[in-house]
Design brief:
By secondary structure, the protein is of the alpha/beta class. It is 36% helix and 16% strand. β1 (50-55), α3 (67-82) and β2 form a beta-alpha-beta unit. The protein is globular and about 60 Å long. It starts with 10 loop residues before the first helix and ends in a 16-residue tail after the last helix.
Length: 347
Amino acid sequence: MALRNHPRIPVSTRERIQTIAKDMGWRPNPLLAEAMSAIRAGQPPVDRVTLAWITTGSQRDQWKLSPFDVRCHAGAVERADSAGYRLETFWLGDANNNAERLGDILYNRGINGVLVAPLLDPGTLSIQWERFASATVAHTLITPRLHSANDNHFAGARVCVARMHATGRHRIGLALSAKLDHRVADLWSAGYLLEIFEEGLADPKLLHRPEGAIDEASFIRWVKKAKPDGIIGTHRKIPEWLETAGFKVPQDIAYTELDLATTDGEHAGIFQDARAIGAGAIDMIAGQLLRHERGIPEKPKTNIIDGHWIDGKTMPKKVVHKDLLEQAKRLLNNTGDPEPARPVVYD
């Protein structure tokens, strides 16, 4: 009962027993857990151990170029391992980019749990979903709608506006590629616009949202025309571009990043808890396996995980409006370590 986190066992006792079990090398057996679940439900047990991490880039390891994807995969691997599963990578290119062929490969391997990694461009993936318990991360799989785990992009953008305003900045701009915004269901621009209007700072000229990638020349032209004293974005070179153009960061223009690659403090902004997001997606798949659920869900669930605000050199330290700072702190409530994925036990 302690290994199953049963509420009748005191928390201290549970933690002590789980620590001892972990030190002894104990891991939950997903075969036994699923078999027992099947027996309770009056169904025959099914042997499934390996889960699939499906990637769809033009190259096998293209997903490893994304810090978010790498952290997400690490969290998924850790959570799968702690639950007794093994996460194996399957690249769509190995099936000649034929999704149904990939589905056959997985099915013939005896795999019935799949986690879809973020797609390079929002789109679809047409495998035989009725065979699998499934989930995805990010908002890039448009159809079908699966259970998913995601960052709280909307709140993250609001926090960037509120924290910047708290330092006395009033012309806060957003420099963001529309294509990149689409990858998060346009939640970054939505959060920015809401908070800007709520705080009485709205000005259409402060929105720089080209369809393609942000480039230095057009960005600096926008800065000189719109005259922001704070900028929110995703391009790590923005502070460098500003300095080259003669602006001091953060004295002249402050900067916050919506998707930090590291927590080194060079830039201020949001560090998405990708490891917890990957772990959350595994939770969803493991739950479906234990309930013997397969196929496209009738009511897709989304697990939203707050990111972490990271103080950095690109933001002023002095706070002018403490009420806005307190408001920002309430918008994101992730008080855990952004790196480790906390193991759970399934039974």
